[in-house]
Amino acid sequence: MCERLGVPAVLDVFHHRILSSFPGLSDRELVERFARTWPPGERQKVHFSTQHAGKARGAHAEHVDGEEFAAFYEQVRDLEVDVMLEVKDKERSLLDVRARLGLASA
Hints:
Elements: H1 2-5, E1 11-12, H2 13-18, H3 27-35, E2 44-48, H4 66-76, E3 81-85, H5 90-101
Parallel strand pairs: 1-2, 2-3
Helix pairs in contact: 4-5
């Protein structure tokens, strides 16, 4: 729809994994496909979260699963994209992810 309307689409990795509009595509292929909807010079946005272990399918976890994020990051690390964590403890999750990936703290 966004491709036809000419508006940027934000990929939500978690929701894609639950109910995919593009089954069979890797995370990288998804990010690249969604990137085509973004205007030149504008940095693409992607949302990332993980399943809450004790809740119904589709419920966001309060903390990002570092292992899941690291696997996603390895696929897209060289792409120009802003990844937004959809979790309650955004700062703690970010610091944990950065430490797991060996990235310096800002």
